[in-house]
Design brief:
CATH architecture of the largest domain: 3-Layer(aba) Sandwich
Largest sheet: 5 strands, parallel
Radius of gyration: 19 Å
Number of domains: 2
């Protein structure tokens, strides 16, 4: 990352919120492009900023025509990896899960404190730097016959390419980067979902199940192991 002003694309249908937030971010040193709905956000990314894309995208969940969740899903399906921060007035954990599963990197509840919002933006920027460093140092991650390409977001096991969602890919990458280490539930929730849903949540177990089915298809050996009462570990068992 350089010292240049970071570019932010803000999509928010509430004019007062959009204008006040854009003004605050500009004063904070960001270069802001603000649009009023999801369709305009997609148009901006595909037409207006193709050669100079934003560094961060902020999407309101509830927007007319094309909502924030749809924009997020579309971008992730197209391979766009720009960090996405969702804004929402919905407070249920299931709503947060929906946003994060759509491919969002973080989630802020309305009404929000500007200090918290800027702290989360700074965290996303730090993550950008870490990701860039990791991807420049490691071209591929290997565990047994499974090979991950973090930069290209591709995974192969043997001759078979795996089709993974963003959350599945991020979870598998976290486990493989820490191969042989047992990661507890709270650590995984914080790293992948940026929120610990607590001991009663089945969300992590569901995604571990998805990954096992996909990595073990056609008789592949188990690479993701449960450490009962603690968490999960990626390792090869001979």
């Amino acid at each position: 990352m350089t010292d240049e002003r970071l570019r932010v694309l803000l999509a928010e249908d509430d004019r007062a919120v959009r204008e006040s937030l854009a003004r605050a971010m500009t004063l904070e040193g960001y270069e802001v492009s603000a649009v009023n709905d999801g369709a305009a956000a997609l148009q901006h990314l595909r037409e207006d900023s193709v050669d100079d894309p934003p560094d961060i995208i902020i999407l309101d969940v509830s927007m007319p025509a094309v909502d924030g969740l749809t924009v997020c899903r579309v971008l992730r399906s197209e391979g766009v990896r720009i960090p996405i921060l969702m804004l929402t007035a919905r407070t249920e954990p299931s709503d947060r899960i929906a946003g994060l599963d759509a491919g969002a990197d973080d989630y802020v509840l309305k009404p929000f404190d500007l200090g918290e919002l800027f702290a989360r933006l700074r965290a996303l920027v730090r993550r950008l730097v870490v990701d860039a460093d990791e991807h420049s140092e490691v071209k591929s991650l290997v565990l047994d016959d499974l090979v991950m390409d973090p930069a290209g977001r591709r995974v192969r096991r043997g001759s078979r390419e795996l089709e993974l969602s963003k959350t599945e890919f991020d979870l598998l990458e976290l486990l493989i980067r820490n191969a042989g280490i047992v990661l507890d539930h709270s650590t995984i929730y914080e790293r992948i979902w940026k929120y610990d849903f607590g001991p009663d949540s089945k969300n992590l177990a569901v995604y571990i199940g998805y990954l096992r089915r996909k990595t073990e298809e056609e008789g592949g050996s188990r690479l993701i192991h449960t450490v009962r009462g603690v968490g999960y570990s990626a390792r090869v068992e001979r």
